[in-house]
């Protein structure tokens, strides 16, 4: 069908026009827009945000090193429990001091409620520690190590780094880390070792990230300093076990915190998303009143 002379094409569906269904005129590309919703990142901001990934990698490294020291008999459960208890008390006080107690007032929790939760968790964990010690006796050690490695990897994948993504699941991430801690604790010499190991896992995988989020939101400079010190401590501990592993881990941290942000900034310049009349219609009006 040939267009009628002098007839101008209109982008409407309710009127019959002498044009093919796939016809567009020269004005079609006038509404072309590029990178409408593209975000421009700054290198320093991306490096700062990568600190969450560095923190979690170091947490997994410190946890595995602690288990290795206990399994080798180089760290007593009493010493680890005392150090973890002292650091938890310090972190508890610091958590309230960072925001002036605003988070506690919003949640409505009292210190007595926190103390009761801690005592209940400690009592149940200590009571079931003999069960945890013998839970995986029928499973080979190689299988335990493989499951623990997969669970820790899943913990890193599903952890909430602050991104709004469907794959993020804080509950799943924490459960996988605790499952790995139970598997590794079952290979320690005594039930007391298993109790201390599971307790330490709860501290480093549940409580430590909460403190880091508060530091990141309230005192960014302090957060950067703590991240650097934590990474250096993890590298120092790993160096006592394997110098090659420490070098590789240091390269991994540098790649995540420096190289990956640089690559993101460079690739962002090549981004070329196009928008135009072919996009799906978006209803921007609030339709909640129709749901009544």
Describe this structure in words.
- The chain has ten helices and two strands; from the N terminus they run βααααααααααβ.
- The protein is mainly alpha-helical.
- Strands 1-2 form a two-stranded antiparallel ribbon.
- Helix 9 (220-239) packs antiparallel against helix 10 (243-268).
- The longest helix has 28 residues, at 191-218.
- It is elongated.
- The model has no long low-confidence stretch (mean pLDDT 85).
Keywords:
10 helices; 292 residues; two-stranded antiparallel sheet; elongated; mainly alpha; 1% strand
Average pLDDT, all residues = 85
Nearest-angstrom radius of gyration? Answer: 27 Å
* Overall morphology: elongated
- Oligomeric status of the shown chains? single chain
List segments where confidence is low: pLDDT < 50 over at least 5 consecutive residues.
none
Structural class: mainly alpha
Total DSSP helices: 10
Number of strands: 2
Element-by-element helix/strand order: EHHHHHHHHHHE
**Main beta sheet, described?**
2 strands, antiparallel
Kindly report how far apart the N and C termini lie.
48 Å
Helix content: 55-70%
Kindly estimate the percentage of residues that lie in beta strands according to DSSP.
under 5%
In spatial order, strands of the major sheet run 1-2
